[in-house]
Design a protein that fits this description.
The protein is an alpha+beta fold. 23% of the residues lie in helices and 38% in strands. Strands 2-3-4-1-5-8-7-6 form an 8-stranded mixed β-sheet.
């Protein structure tokens, strides 16, 4: 039984969403298919699809939001890798039993019509992992 279906997207923290959209549109040869603000995370997201793969650009709407803090500490760059799962609650339970530290013990509504939850990078070799489940 697969617990993780595929890489859902790679999240990239950026300072300026418009400049980053222009850069990635030139780089990838496609325009973003969706731009969305997630108030609870103080972030503007922009999604690009290339083949089966997606890139999510994240720009903070607040210096003290998660992305604002990340950029202040580490600069722009890869922020997280997201994995698609069929049952996010079961997957969170499984990962916690395996010894992973969860940032979110219960999923919350995220961008792109997804339920999301994060696994702490302390337990994943420094990589912030996001779990995503499509909201039906």
């Amino acid at each position: 039984m697969n617990h993780i279906n595929k890489i859902e997207h790679i999240g990239i923290a950026v300072k300026d969403i418009e400049k980053a959209n222009t850069l990635y549109e030139q780089l990838l040869g496609v325009a973003p298919y969706k731009e969305e603000t997630v108030e609870s995370e103080a972030v503007i997201t922009s999604f690009f699809k290339v083949g089966e793969n997606k890139i999510e650009l994240l720009a903070s709407t607040s210096e003290d939001g998660p992305i604002g803090k990340f950029i202040a500490k580490k600069g722009e760059g890869i922020h997280h890798i997201a994995f698609d799962v069929d049952d996010i609650e079961k997957e969170l339970e499984r990962l916690e039993k395996e010894g992973f530290q969860l940032i979110n013990k219960t999923p919350k509504k995220g961008a792109d019509n997804k339920l999301v939850a994060f696994v702490h990078p302390k337990t994943t070799n420094g990589v912030l992992v996001e779990l995503c489940q499509e909201i039906n």
